[in-house]
Specification:
Strand content: under 5%
Helix content: over 70%
Largest sheet: none
Number of helices: 9
Length: about 260
């Protein structure tokens, strides 16, 4: 795979996962079963946790050491900035999570469907950044990251985007939105990923010395989404172990992809 092929894969593969998930609105007549939804949210959490460790934090540590930086300090700073950046967005942007009755963020008059889409869009910002920064690391030629490792991350993000697309489009349909509009809204929630990936690639190409910080930043942003949004949603209501099983399977699958292809 050449550089242009990797770039195309990074922009298309994760986004296609969201679009395919949103397309489930045309195949399913009812909203996703709550147990299945919990499993899918847990699965997404597991994928993101594993991707944060193997695809972002470990390469950040290796790169910092290679550049003669204090690796533990670099990844700690980048990680915490990523956490607080998503916390800021979560506080400012009006959004509504599936199953919640009260929106978060600043007060607004946005429609419920719009705020549901914004909630998933927030999830996708760090995912787009993580893909972009890993691809930038490969293209820079100054890291030990491989094209196949970057491809593994793209596939992993696409796998966890599939349930996210379905989880946003199906409730919209249940709330009276047409199938076509539900599909469009679900798909658009993932549009921020290729945009975020492309912008991150451009940014990182200018600041290669900060690449280790940016890798850790993306990891922090992804972990914020997992801890603040995905796991609580997977455990909402009556306690169930199905979400935990989803986390385990998602983590192992992403770990296998990264080790086998990386």
């Amino acid at each position: 795979m050449n550089a242009s092929g990797l770039l195309a894969a990074g922009l298309i593969i994760p986004f296609s996962g969201t679009a395919l998930g949103a397309a489930m609105v045309f195949l399913m007549k009812k909203e996703i079963n709550i147990q299945v939804q919990r499993f899918l949210l847990g699965f997404s959490s597991g994928v993101m946790i594993a991707a944060s460790v193997w695809s972002l934090l470990i390469p950040a540590i290796d790169l910092a050491q290679k550049q003669g930086q204090v690796s533990w300090l670099v990844v700690s700073i980048g990680f915490l900035i990523g956490i607080f950046f998503l916390l800021l967005l979560d506080t400012v942007i009006p959004h509504l999570h599936i199953g919640a009755s009260k929106p978060e963020g600043i007060s607004s008059k946005l429609e419920r469907s719009t705020m549901l889409v914004l909630a998933v869009t927030l999830h996708n910002i760090p995912e787009g950044m993580s893909v972009g920064v890993v691809i930038a690391g490969v293209l820079s030629g100054k890291t030990d990251m491989s094209m196949y490792g970057a491809l593994a991350l793209c596939i992993g993000i696409a796998l966890q985007n599939f349930p996210e697309g379905a989880i946003i489009s199906m409730p919209l349909r249940s709330n009276g939105v047409s199938k076509t509009k539900s599909f469009i809204y679900g798909t658009l929630s993932g549009a921020v990923e290729p945009v975020g990936a492309f912008l991150t690639i451009l940014l990182t190409s200018w600041v290669v010395p900060l690449l280790s910080y940016i890798l850790a930043f993306a990891a922090g942003a992804m972990i914020y989404v997992v801890v603040e949004e995905l796991i609580p949603e997977a455990q909402r209501g009556e306690h169930s172990n199905i979400g935990t099983i989803g986390v385990a399977l998602g983590f192992v699958l992403m770990m296998i992809l990264d080790i086998a292809l990386g």
